[in-house]
Amino acid sequence: MDDAVRSSKMQAHYAEVQEAERLSAGVGELERIRTQDVLARYLPKAPARILDVGGAAGVHALWLARQGYEVHLSDPVPKHVEEAKEASRAQAQFPIASCAVGDARKIEEKDSSSDGVLLLGPLYHLTERADRLKAMREAHRVLRSGGRVFAAAISRFASFMDGFSRDFVGDPLFVEILRQDLKDGQHRNLTDNPHYFTSTFFHHADELQSEIEEAGFTFEKIIAIEGPVWVMGNFAKHWDDPKKRALLLEFLRTVEEERTLLGATAHMIGVGKK
Q1: Confidence of residue 8 (pLDDT cuts 50, 70, 90)
Q2: pTM of the full predicted structure?
């Protein structure tokens, strides 16, 4: 797909959806809490300097700023950058250090200038492997020795599970999207339905590991974020019960690196060290 076309489709998608709100309840809240649990365990201690590349409306950047980190956010969607700036002003005591429109393939930072890089969206919006490697190599360039990259990917099988759990497969157009996803991971939504997401790449775990290694990182691990629970029919019932929520989070952490379960998650995070 032409880069300009892919970019315009992504911009159009995010004009329709509220990304910050997506992470505030239900399965989105699970994604946020699990992602932040991973970051809390593997990022260096504050006040380390962190780049949130593709940081959208700043949900994770704002949280890190409240922990005392120096966070610099960039995103290709101007709407997201403005939302992040507004939210940063609202928590004036713990602002995001900077927010700017930017491209993960050309990070506007000096070599060896940061302690951690978050790529929690760019890899699946960059549908060509060469572009994903550019983004990963840029993360490697701007990291100090010993710094870590946190690279999120969507599972190759996410639309298969989501499509049946929410009955999107009743739509013949979605069925064709699903066939293509399972064939090569190249997700293309040619409909006007925002629930079918936008043009993206869905990874196998081994592809994510390969990209981390090829970019020059020492591969450390891949962590499943939602695990298999995100498509449970009774997920909300468990999530809304404090005791069962605690159990879900406990056991998701227990099995988060189980390689045989990685395909069942919606999102996974690969961790690489410079």
Answers
A1: confident
A2: 0.96
